[in-house]
Specification:
Order of helices and strands: HHHH
Radius of gyration: 30 Å
Shape: extended
Number of strands: 0
Number of helices: 4
Strand content: under 5%
Helix content: 55-70%
Largest sheet: none
Length: 131
């Protein structure tokens, strides 16, 4: 014998059917994602080679090559100005960035004052080996 709930009336209300919709990504989206990641990896490798090269002339060549690769990738991909981050921001975005910048500058001034005022610089360079 089934016991009925005193709090909730037992009714024969069926549960709604669950509909699962799967949307397969097209080949274009997958290609686009792989192309973008390959661009990032190649540009990063060129920049790493430019940073870690032994001689200055080699570093200069790698940095020029990295700049050219980034420029070529930006021309080939043809992103929009907004996607590149070169468009004009909204008023709320500008206000947020301006407010955070002012708060950061005020915090640096307060920390400098709290640390003892002016910070004296050393006249010697540690990396040159002079004492």
């Amino acid at each position: 014998m089934a016991v009925e709930s005193k709090s909730f009336p037992v009714a024969a209300t069926p549960l709604p059917a669950i509909k699962i919709r799967l949307q397969a990504q097209g080949g274009q989206d997958t290609y686009r994602r792989q192309f973008t990641w390959s661009q990032v990896i190649v540009a990063f490798l060129f920049i790493e080679c430019a940073v870690w090269a032994a001689r200055l002339s080699v570093r200069s060549r790698w940095s020029l090559a990295a700049g050219a690769v980034v420029l070529i990738f930006s021309i080939v991909d043809r992103p929009s100005v907004r996607r590149l981050g070169l468009g004009l921001p909204s008023a709320m975005g500008s206000g947020l960035v301006l407010g955070l910048g002012l708060a950061g500058a005020a915090l640096m001034l307060l920390l400098t004052h709290w640390a003892g005022g002016r910070i004296r610089s050393f006249r010697t360079c540690i990396w040159r080996g002079s004492t």
